[in-house]
Amino acid sequence: MNITKQINGKELTIALEGKLDTTTAPELEQELEKSLDGVDKLVFDLKDMDYISSAGLRVLLSAHKKMIGKNGMLLKNVCEEIMEIFEVTGFIDMFQVGE
Amino acid sequence: MTVDCEAQMKELVIDALTDNLNTVIDFVDEQLEAADCSMKTQMQINVAVEEIFVNIAHYAYAPDTGSATIRVAVDGDPAVARIMFLDSGVPYNPLEKTDPDVTSSLAERQIGGLGIYLVKKTMDQVLYEYSEGQNILTLEKKLN
Q1: Which of A23, A51, A54 lies nearest to residue B115, judging by beta carbons?
Q2: Range of the domain at B68
Q3: How many domains does chain B have?
Q4: In A, which residues are within 8 Å of B19 by CB distance?
Q5: Which CATH class is domain A2-98?
Q6: Which sequence spans correspond to the domains of chain A?
Q7: Cα–Cα separations (whole angstroms), residue B12 to A32, B57, B83, B131, B136
Q8: Which ranges of chain A have pLDDT less than 50?
Q9: What sign does the dihedral B106-B109-B114-B118 (CA atoms) show?
């Protein structure tokens, strides 16, 4: 998995490429751990991510919880297969998903 | 015939360690390749395989380690994939786990149980049995 960060003022965009699974989720978790200080809005660009399992969902959920009380978290460019996982798990109702 | 079915079934015996996850997924994908299934179905199967294998890796033999056997058969028309996981760890039926509340709010949302819930929701059939000292979990999914 490749993780690319881009900070714009207080908005952090993280582009993910590859699979967010049991083996790669800890990398993202560590990256988030050290990146969210002072961040007001978190954007995940999932254009090049083609797989997510519950381990990946767990990291997204924990990031989302950390953004409570701020400007929130946005997931963009979500492919159909991952969208389906968000629907089955009800994450679609919690996450802000956009273009 | 049973013999034919067995002949078409491919088997992988591997240490139940999360480090081996990619080997397990690659093995399953190889068997699915000929069936030409959609991206969506393949991802659902891969997710289900990950959830079950990782569960075995984390809990079946803890704190020790042991092996898992994965068997894959694709047959029938329309094609159905049947994937079996066998381990000799502690008896555990993941299907008895209570489903998470997928409608709860962000603040209350718990992640536990989400993996097996995904498996139940995306596979056509999930069966568990404990036989001769082994946990046997079988997934079935129509491929098209």
Answers
A1: A54
A2: 2-142
A3: 1
A4: 23
A5: alpha beta
A6: 2-98
A7: 36, 15, 11, 19, 14
A8: none
A9: negative
For B77, other C-beta atoms within 10 Å of its C-beta total 6
What is the interface pTM, i.e. ipTM, of the complex? 0.91
Total length of chain A: 99
Q: What pTM does this model have?
A: 0.92
CA distance B75 to B25: 19
A65/B contact by beta carbon, under 8 A = yes
Per the prediction, chain A carries an average pLDDT of: 95
CB contacts under 8 A, B 62-101 vs A, are: none
Q: Supply the DSSP string of B60-90, one letter for each residue.
A: ISTTS--EEEEEEEEETTTTEEEEEEEE-SS
What is the token pair recorded at B136? 């046997």
Interface residue of B114, B117, B122, B141 to substitute, partner A, most A CBs within 10 Å = B114
What does the pLDDT look like over B54-107, one tens digit per residue? 999 999 999 999 999 999 999 988 899 999 999 999 999 999 988 888 888 877
Mean pLDDT of chain B: 91
Q: The CATH number of the domain where B122 resides is what?
A: 3.30.565.10
